Amino acid sequence: MVPVFFAFRMRFYVAWIAAECGCIAAGFGAYPVAAKARAGGGPTLPCAPPSSLEEAAALEYDYETIRNIDCYGTDFCTRVREGMRYWNMTVQWWLAQYIYKTAPTRSYVLR
């Protein structure tokens, strides 16, 4: 069972990392490191645009906004909640922003 589950997980990891590489090659999701971008959420701090091409070339960029999975965190987490946060991070962010926070706080469960 271990080899089967390993192969199953690796298919997902390779697909997500290949998609991230495609987005990086297209230039999507590049923010300066000083902006402290989050997966799915974009930059958290305002960052002024560079005034010249030399300044833009000197900046260090990251692609955290398009990061979708943390393979190491997913495989070696200790709780299910942590695993869900590392697996499909951009979708988790979207669900938290647009579904969970707008849902009514009181559950409508029949008693």
Automatic annotation (TrEMBL):
Major location (coarse): endoplasmic reticulum
State its location(s).
Answer: Endoplasmic reticulum membrane
GO CC, sorted alphabetically, is:
endoplasmic reticulum membrane; mitochondria-associated endoplasmic reticulum membrane contact site
Is Transferase among this UniProt entry's keywords?
yes
**Topology with regard to the membrane?**
Multi-pass membrane protein
> Could you tell me one molecular function GO term of this UniProt entry?
lysophospholipid acyltransferase activity
Top-rank taxon? Eukaryota
Name the keywords, alphabetized: Acyltransferase, Endoplasmic reticulum, Membrane, Transferase, Transmembrane, Transmembrane helix
Pathway annotation: Phospholipid metabolism; Lipid metabolism; phospholipid metabolism
Family matches, as InterPro entries = LPLAT_7/PORCN-like, MBOAT_fam
Catalytic function, reaction form: a 1-acyl-sn-glycero-3-phospho-(1D-myo-inositol) + an acyl-CoA = a 1,2-diacyl-sn-glycero-3-phospho-(1D-myo-inositol) + CoA; a 1-acyl-sn-glycero-3-phospho-(1D-myo-inositol) + (5Z,8Z,11Z,14Z)-eicosatetraenoyl-CoA = a 1-acyl-2-(5Z,8Z,11Z,14Z-eicosatetraenoyl)-sn-glycero-3-phospho-(1D-myo-inositol) + CoA; (5Z,8Z,11Z,14Z)-eicosatetraenoyl-CoA + 1-hexadecanoyl-sn-glycero-3-phosphocholine = 1-hexadecanoyl-2-(5Z,8Z,11Z,14Z-eicosatetraenoyl)-sn-glycero-3-phosphocholine + CoA; 1-octadecanoyl-sn-glycero-3-phospho-(1D-myo-inositol) + (5Z,8Z,11Z,14Z)-eicosatetraenoyl-CoA = 1-octadecanoyl-2-(5Z,8Z,11Z,14Z-eicosatetraenoyl)-sn-glycero-3-phospho-(1D-myo-inositol) + CoA
Q: Which family does it belong to?
A: Belongs to the membrane-bound acyltransferase family.
Biological processes annotated in GO:
lipid modification; phosphatidylinositol biosynthetic process
Keyword Transmembrane found? yes
Transmembrane parts of this sequence: 12-34
Protein name per its UniProtKB record: Leukocyte receptor cluster member 4
